[in-house]
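User: Sequence for U6 snRNA phosphodiesterase 1 below. Tokens please.
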Amino acid sequence: QEEFLELLELLVRHARTYVSSLAAMEEFHLSLSQCVVLRYHWIDPFVRSLKDRLAACHRFFCVADQVKVYTNQNKTRTFIGLEVSAGHFQLMELVSEVDRVLEEFDLPTFYKDPSFHISLAWCVGDLSGRLEGQCLRELQDIVDGFEDSALLLRVQWEQIRCKSGNKYFSFPLR
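Assistant: Structure tokens for U6 snRNA phosphodiesterase 1:
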């Protein structure tokens, strides 16, 4: 939505006063699994299993309105994201189904206590120290004060997507 992109621009512009190398994300998602490597001959059975597991899952809303700073496991990238403040239970149910499929293929499951979030911007290196504290409070003030942010940051989950290489698979929720 145009309004979301306006909010993103405000947040990134402000955060760049603390870390000039921040780049805005071009696509937005909320992860329900870690990135895993699928062998080519596993892709079709993996997708079928995901489809079966997710078939009974229902649509729901969540709210992602809490600004938070993240780093990847290797501390080679820093992200600014919007953490989910409502809808955590439903997301955990989805993760449980995805984890079962990952276990079938002996792949690593999701983090035990995940912080569900949508990444907005990123940079190389661990620059979380520059973004936390004052910058984070200012970014949260921007989100809280943005017109219609309550509606804008309310996300309806209608489908789950799985990306494998350059292919996307969609699983509609009931």
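The radius of gyration is 17 Å.
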